[in-house]
Amino acid sequence: MSESKSRQTFELPIEGFDLGFEGVVPPGRVAKLLETLRWRIARGGEHPILGTFKAGVLRAQTLELTADVTMGDVLVVELWLSKVGRTSLEFSHAFRKSDGTEIGRATCTIVAIGDAGPAPLPPGLAEHVSGESAIVAPPVEAPDPARSYVRRITVRPSDLDLFRHVNQSRYVDFADDTRYFASHEGHEAGFSDRVGLVSVSYESELKLGQEVEALLELREDGTRRFGIRRVGEARFATRGVVAPRIRGEA
Known about the structure:
Blueprint: E1 2-4, E2 7-13, H1 27-43, E3 55-65, E4 74-84, E5 88-97, E6 102-114, E7 117-118, E8 149-154, H2 168-184, E9 195-202, E10 211-218, E11 224-230, E12 238-244
Helix pairs in contact: 1-2
C-alpha cells in the first residue's frame, strides 16, 4: 500500500471465483471488489477518511470498464477522496492490471449515517481531497415503460447484505443481466457486447421477497436508461445509465 493523504494504492489478486460465465470479472463483481476494499481499509484503520464516521451507505456510483480482467490478473486500485459535502463524500477509483493495462474508473458517493439518519461529517475532511472525480456521472432519468424491456425479479436472500437490503453490487448485476436477457430476446434495448458503463442512483431500499421490475430503454445516443421499481408502483427505487463498451477497447 502506498499513501499520500487520502490517495492510496492497493493490489487485489483475481481468483477463479471472481469470474462470470464469460470467463472475465463481470461489472457487478468489480463493484463488489471495490466495496470490499473500502470496508477492509475502513475497519483496519488504513485510510485517513474511511472509518472517521459511524456508518455510511452508498447513494450513487458510476463504473467504467475499458478492458477485461480475468483469473491470475492483479488489479491495482488507486483510491482517493474527490469531493466532500455536509453529509456525503465521494471516493474515486482508477484501476489497472499490474502490467499497466488500464481497466477502468469508478466513483461512489457515500452518505454518513447516524442514529437518526444522515449525519454531518467531521470537520476538516475537505483538507483530504486529493484530486478530481475519476469520472463524471451521467444524468440519470427514469426509463419510459412503454419503450422498455421489462424483466421481473424476486429479491432473494443472496441479494442482501448485512444491512438486510439489496447490496449495491447486485443492482449492477441486475443491469448487466437485464441487458443480456433483452439482447437474447431481440429487444432493441439489449446488447451482447461487454458493459462499458453503468451508473446507478440508489433512491429507495429493496428488501427480501419484494417483487420488482427491471426496465431498460434504448436512447438515441446508444446508451440505455435503466431503472428498478416495485411491481405495482410507478416510482423507481433505482435509476441509472448502462452502455456497451466502445468497440476497439480490449
